[in-house]
Amino acid sequence: MWKTIFRRVLVMIPQLFVLSLLIFIMAKFMPGDPFTGMITPDTDPARIEELRIQAGFYDPWYEQYFRWISNAAQGDFGKSYTYKLPVSELLGDRALNTLWLALLSVFLLYLIAIPLGVLAGRYQNTFLDKTVVLYSFISYAIPVFVLALIFLFFFGYQLQWFPTSGTVDIKYDNGSLGYIWSKIYHILLPAITFAILGTTGVIQYLRTEVIDAKSQDYVRTARSKGIPINKVYSRHIFRNSLLPVAAFLGFTITGLLGGSIFIETIFGYPGMGQLFIQSISGRDYSVITALVMLYGFLTLLGSLLSDIIMSIVDPRIRID
Amino acid sequence: MSFMEIKDLQVHYPVRGGFFNTIVDHVHAVDGISMEFEKGKTYGLVGESGCGKSTTGKAIIGLEKITSGSIVYEGVDVTNQRRQRNSSYNRDIQMIFQDAHSSLNPRKRVKDIIAEPIRNFLKLSDLEEKKRINELLAIVGMPEDSKLKYPHEFSGGQKQRIGIARAIASNPKLIIADEPVSALDLSVQAQVLNFLKEIQQELGLSYLFISHDLGVVKHMCDEIAIMNKGRFVESGTKRDIYQSPQHIYTKRLLSAIPNIEPSTREARKVERINVEQNYQVENHKYYDTNGRVYDLLPISDTHAVAKKEEREVVI
Amino acid sequence: MNITQNLLTIKDLHTSFRIKDTYFDAVDGVSIHLKKNEILAIVGESGCGKSTLATSIIGLHDANVTRITGEIEFKGNNLAELSEDRLNDVRGNDIGMIFQDPLSALNPLMRIGDQIEESLIYHTKLSKKERSFRVQELLTQVGIPNPKRVAHQFPHQLSGGMRQRVIIAIAISCKPSIIIADEPTTALDVTIQAQILDLLKDLQAETQSGIILITHDLGVVAEVADRVAVMYAGQIIEEAGVDELFSNPRHPYTRSLLNSIPQTHSDSEKLEVIQGVVPSLVNLPRTGCRFASRIPWIQEDAHENEPQLHEIAPGHFVRCTCWNHFYFEGEEGGSLT
Fold first, then answer.
1. pTM to 2 decimals?
2. Cβ partners under 8 Å of residue B125, min gap 6
3. ipTM > 0.90, yes or no
4. CATH homologous superfamily of domain A87-313?
5. Number of domains observed in the structure of chain C
6. Which terminus of chain C, N or C, has less C-beta within 10 A?
């Protein structure tokens, strides 16, 4: 297995290289630059020009690219023009925030979706099943920002059950129990929103899989052994139906790591999605390119992760 | 006399592995077989699953790439030439598949299914094409109004007839039939087999009949080749194979076929056990140290067996 | 006949499936019994109801769309009326089941040993250690070399013949008195088929159990069965001892089927063909002789109005009276006798 993982990681290098080239060129095509935003009636245009020359914006694009890529290869993605911070430092904080949000979201997502999907499949065409299907259609039809705004307004402002922005209360010491709880408390509402919106796919998938598995020959064999029906579900149908869901797990996790632009923006949560939007409007090239590179890497990582998960849960798939 | 000759046909599949996923080995699905086809005859290709019989059929019709060897059709080398659209080889060799259902496009009407080879090869006017479709439906014994229907509206036997109508539409010389009746019920199987024989006489067709069912093959074929591990272990006329099987593998296959005479049960079981023991003991006479089947050695004008050559000691 | 000799007695069994709010009988009034130490073959073409009959016995159908009426008498109980819980005590314990496709009949994600062990968990009081010992004993019994290793393998790592042996091991794990085998060799090559059939016969001789063998293959029937019931359109149309059935078939359907087999030992040029097709469940005529439409050259009054099974010789039953007047199309007309 390690051999395959190593090989797949090696293959990622040329893929990421092509990606970096594309990103860099496209970033250069964007109108404006970080200094455009600084122009006020008082600024001296000559001073801005000077800054641009200093930043190397008038060098040929390939020179700029090689300067950037050789630094990036050493982990230096440059400095954010907006935050005046090294990009890696800026991303580090944001990534950690997003990671917590992503993990809780995934946990809640499967906590809601797996029981609902399995029950709907098992009791197909009953009232329960129809209710679950209706729920999943509704959650599919609601746009992210609408649900996020409703939750924020209702649970955040009206009922005041949850904080409406930030990641942690400043009154706690870093590392204390209260600090950790406060962190979870802050991401709970965005995570629930996220989870609810993500359940549709998993519920529908699982429901179809369970219905399909019920008529499989091996389930008939299990029933012919005289095993109680609940055990037939838990030992045979459940695990087999989870396979396709497991296949998506890798993508789901890395997808969430990219952060959600809408949710992070609406809940005022300083994660990567929010950073992405801000850096685009601020023409913060170094941050944009670093972020897109990171998303590209996460996508590749997701597919590798999915393959590894599949090889663990399905004995028919072995990678060497 | 023969219109087609296959020489030392081989089909290998690559096995990938190692760090860079390079080809590390080959599976020899078909490993050097030779055949000749004469007009109006039926050739049987028999073996158990995985022996390479279906791959052989597909390689002949061009659905598998031939690794080495050649197919000479009417004096022209047509090896791996299937992609040339208008060659007479394409027109003259057709195929019938095991699963009639999945081999018919569910979104096409019967008339379009049957017309496909006509449109590809025959360049008929619309009126002639219509006439030809009616003619073909009549040959396969289907009512004329079935041409406007879709495949799912027919039973298994009828679908196989539609598949046959499509195969004979371009007036082929050879039809490759890959397990054409093994998905059918007994009574329907009999209908299709009888019918295949009828049109053979009417149209002077040759068949390459690929099957695992030795009863069906005996009923249909003039010449039979038994296949094992991608090679022929024995070939000969129907009489050669069924009356005096020589290769241990052939004997083993024959002894395993159930017989519809219950009274012979015990005797047959004894015979089966004997053959099985022989198979274990005499294995080395029929397979070399790598488990490969030996080359065919002729033992009569028609009959050949793959056996270790017993060299006479020359003084 | 002494009833207590019978392991299983089925009387007037109807199994019907609901199609658009109407129930249609797939098994339409079947009565048959199985004796100890006997292989009873139920033979027929697809759609005749033979597999439905097999699965009805242990109630494996979806209860929402299936209705089973009649008597399935086994050990003093009527299986058709038992609750799901009580049926589970019978399934796998008293009655073992073998299925057609050994690949799909095994759970692809579960180790072979665990799949065999499952029935032992629910039907025996064996300890974990005793169970794993029994699993290896069973694997050895069905002729699997290296049982210890195979028990830890997954189904896809075994060949088709080996998988079917595993299925058989599951079926016999609790020493059932009845084994129902539904097309056990249809998916296998002939040489493997012969091995599996031999294995079944040997096991049966050892355990004295009764086997119900469901098959479409008359060759397999002739090879292993003691008694044969031929089914057509949901009914048994002929029943006899195996020698009697093959040497002296009576019902037109049985005779036509036998004449349509391409045989390795005969050189017949033309196979007998049965006209028309098997009627579907919905379109099946429920009155008169169900085979009449496929032998139209036999005059109508040869058939009974409500065809019954008649015992024409000891142990030989034939449905309807048309057999008496049957001749193959194109042959000289006239009765058989």
1. 0.85
2. none
3. no
4. MetI-like (1.10.3720.10)
5. 1
6. C
